[in-house]
């Protein structure tokens, strides 16, 4: 069974997008936002990451 929420390293592996690019795209509204699950812990919804459509150049 696949996890519902992903850590940043899992998001990087799944999307082949670098950490800095993910955060830049989030600030520009081009990538799903992370979800805070506790003190200094964030995750991304697996479904949001999978269904994300990269912006067209």
Please sum up the structure shown.
The protein is α+β, with helices and mostly antiparallel strands and 57 residues long. It is 40% helix and 19% strand. The longest helix has 9 residues.
The gyration radius over C-alpha positions equals: 11 Å
Contiguous uncertain segments of 5+ residues: none
The average pLDDT score comes to 91
**Secondary-structure element sequence?**
EHHEEH
Offer a few descriptive terms:
57 residues, alpha+beta, 3-stranded antiparallel sheet, 3 helices, 40% helix
Structure description:
Helix content is 40%, strand content 19%. A three-stranded antiparallel sheet has the order 1-3-2. The model has no long low-confidence stretch (mean pLDDT 91). The longest helix is centred in the middle third of the chain and has 9 residues, at 19-27. A hairpin with a 2-residue loop joins β2 (35-38) and β3. The chain has helices at residues 8-15, 19-27, 46-51; strands at residues 5-6, 35-38, 41-45. The protein is of the alpha+beta class and 57 residues long.
């Amino acid at each position: 069974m696949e996890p519902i929420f992903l850590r940043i390293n899992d998001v990087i592996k799944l999307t082949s997008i670098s950490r800095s690019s993910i955060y830049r795209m989030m600030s520009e509204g081009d990538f799903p936002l992370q979800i805070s699950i506790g003190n200094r812990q964030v995750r991304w919804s697996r479904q949001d990451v999978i269904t994300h459509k990269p912006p067209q150049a």
